[in-house]
Specification:
Strands 12, 13, 14, 16 and 17 form a 5-stranded antiparallel β-sheet that branches. The relative contact order is 0.10. This protein has 382 residues and is mostly beta strands. A hairpin with a 7-residue loop joins β4 and β5. The chain is globular, with a radius of gyration of 30 Å. The protein has 4 domains: 53 residues, no CATH class; 89 residues, Immunoglobulins (Immunoglobulin-like, Sandwich), CATH 2.60.40; 94 residues, Sandwich (Immunoglobulin-like); 127 residues, Immunoglobulin-like (Sandwich). It is built from 5 helices and 26 strands.
Length: 382
């Protein structure tokens, strides 16, 4: 390689850099020749832009570093930190990664772009536990301390029973967790090899999963003769989490709808104005049942049932139109559906977004085939 020595600093520069510097100097000289009449220092401005364009052809880099800790100040080791530069051209976006060391420290050498929005994402076991949109940054090293809300690694165990509380053996069980901590659990935990982590209950109906990371969690069960069953864990315990999953079989749940006014008070014996009438839509969580179907079919379980046959056993979407309430503030019609996991939404009569508010979680486990379930809706009426 051709090398030359910078006389003043003693720094060894590649010949390519010296050539670039020479081109820049030629550009500056050209600016003075091409624009001799540019007033107010315009020739220097033109020369600056020529210099910046040529020199930034080789991207500058800056160091991003800091420590990842939980809210108690404890260092978090083994967490993946991602820095992304979101640029005007999506094809030019840049991502760099590093894993925190035993002291929770990370260090990433990241290109600096003048036109870029920077983002930081922290993951553990493929789940996002922290995300920050930093925005544009100055052309300098970045020191970023990151505080992550604690998410426990837990043991999930319990029992699967039928509608008569009898233990069920050989039931498929898996644990779903969110892609981002605190959101809806919609992705099943996997093994170290990337396969879906599932079990079949033993002769006493017991399931047991160790080292499950995520919050909240959803334990899902399936058997061709008993349908789908679920157990929701809003705040998993570090000691032990789980519970009894009651398989609904062919049972149906009667879902009642209670109407509340804008102050949260019961809206009894009311006829809703046309603009405030609505449809409650209950949509089964097909994405999870599809994953269960793929896993069951791929493992050849239950006499080689196919994924399509598994999904066909899942509850179907149901809707009910609400126009009025009785003296107990309940809608005149109930929604009858098979027990399972549903996403509830409110729509106006034209299929648009309703102005009312669904009280509680939009994703609900509806499985009380005996006493039924209650859904409350707040309507903006006094």
């Amino acid at each position: 390689m051709l090398e030359s020595t910078a006389v003043q600093t003693g720094e060894v520069l590649p010949m390519r850099k010296l050539i670039s510097v020479g081109v820049v100097l030629a550009g500056l000289l050209g600016a003075l020749v091409v624009c001799p009449s540019c007033g107010g220092g315009g020739e220097f401005l033109l020369g600056y832009y020529l210099y910046r364009e040529l020199m930034q052809g080789g991207t500058q880099t800056r160091i991003w570093q800091g420590t990842v800790r939980d809210t108690a100040g404890a260092a978090l080791a083994g967490y993946q930190v991602e820095i992304m530069a979101d640029r005007p051209d999506p094809a030019a976006d840049e991502k760099r990664y590093a894993e925190t060391d035993s002291e929770g420290k990370y260090r990433i050498i990241m290109p600096w772009y003048e036109l870029a929005v920077y983002e930081i994402t922290v993951r553990h076991q493929n789940m996002v536990v922290y995300h920050e949109k930093v925005g544009p940054v100055f052309n300098q090293d970045q020191h970023r301390e990151i505080e992550v809300s604690p998410v426990a690694t837990v043991t999930v165990s319990g029992t699967v029973v039928d509608a008569e509380a009898e233990p069920l053996a050989q039931v498929f069980v898996a644990v779903a967790r969110p892609a981002t901590a605190g959101t809806e659990p919609d992705t099943f935990a996997t093994t170290a090899e990337g396969e879906l982590n599932y079990q079949l209950t033993n002769n006493t109906g017991v399931y047991y999963f160790a080292d499950i990371f995520g919050e909240p969690l959803l334990v899902a069960a399936f058997h061709p003769s008993h349908g789908f069953g679920y157990y929701y864990l809003q705040a998993p315990s570090p000691i032990n989490s789980g519970g009894t999953i009651e398989m609904p079989g062919a049972g149906e749940v009667a879902v009642s709808i209670r109407l509340l006014n804008s102050a949260g008070e019961p809206l009894g014996s009311a006829v809703l104005p046309v603009d405030y009438r609505f449809v409650l839509r209950a949509t089964p969580a097909y994405d999870l049942s599809s994953l269960i179907g793929s896993a069951v079919s791929g493992a050849g379980l239950f006499s080689n049932i196919t994924a399509e046959e598994v999904i066909a056993l899942h509850p179907v979407e149901q809707t009910v139109e609400v126009q009025s309430s009785n003296a107990d503030s309940l809608a005149e019609h109930t929604l009858r559906l098979r027990a399972g996991l549903y996403r509830l939404s409110l729509e106006d009569l034209a299929g648009g977004t309703y102005v009312g508010v669904l009280i509680g979680q939009s994703t609900r486990l509806l499985d009380d085939t005996g006493a039924g379930e209650l859904v409350e809706v707040r309507i903006p009426l006094s």
